[in-house]
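Structure tokens please, single chain.
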Amino acid sequence: MGQVYAGRYLAKAAASAPRDFVNAYIARFRPIRPTVLIFHCTFVCDARCEMCNNWTRGDRKSDLTLDEIDRLFDSRLWKNVENANVSGGEPTTRNDLVDVCRIMLDKLPRLRKFGMNTTGLTPHRAIPMLTEIVEATRDRGVIFSARVSIDGIGDVHDTVRRVKTGFDKANETIRAMQALQRKHSHFNFGISTTIFSQNLDDAENIQAWARENDLDIVYNMVRFTDPMLGNADLADKCQPMGPDEARMREFFLDRVRLDPLFDGQNYVYLHYADMIANGYHRMAPCPFQTQGVMLNPDGGLFFCENSEVVGNVRDEDAEAIYFRAASQQHREEIKQGKCPTCLSPCQMNVSAIKQVGPYVRFLARASREKRRHRAPAAAGA
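Here you go.
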């Protein structure tokens, strides 16, 4: 089923390739409408994660209402969005989540891929909601990807998330989503893990558990950004340092060496390993530099997780905020000051599709890593 989904995704990417090349060229000279959107629909969360502070700023009263969301997506700013992700907080804490998603599906005319991250900690809510979203995306011809966050096995996960029996609850959601994936070829399901100091020792256990349970898994390296995660003050506590940093680099390199070459996540993992080795100098492309935008639960519009809010869609049209000279100047300041050391993996694979050169260079390097890994093994055989 995963191969069918991958085929559909690549087919949609290929169909839009000419437009991608044109957009990339035009964006070198003037601002263009975004093709990538991340909407944090709420900061309310059912977890209290050690590496994230979004749950501390969850405030249902300040969240955009369904009517406000319906109106804001009437803006022409969204007319070219092809990849959209709904995040939080925890999206399924919104009773109207399915309706929020339907609005986005109906009002993003060029949408080809829809995604969502969830804790999976409240399966009685998450399972029916995700099931309806899978059906809604199917009816609209949009591929859908969802992931449950797993940051350790058993008690490790419960400790990181600070939720009693959290691993068992998330696992209930996982099993239901795996069954749903077998029924719908447009639906891709997996788990995601953020690697940081407190769960680094369990990273290999997570990898083994995912393999045993036939689960697609993506890893993120912990990062600290107040605009998106509210966690800048947690860096000293959660950032692996010294020997742990070296172990984390080897873990990401092992994914490149051992996983299939064309696994898109390897592009991200090699980027992580390079940044750890080179003092956190970013070399990977990012769609948010020219084609991405983010939206906060209270209507705050910003360019990426390093951007300050440049306006509020409750007060004025999203397109007016986005294209305002002061907003675009802020984006340029981010490019100069933040992009060179940014750890964000957000939609990096989208950028790889839109910028072929970096991805070809990655394939060459990943192939060399695999050969170097196989050579000692062959010599010892």
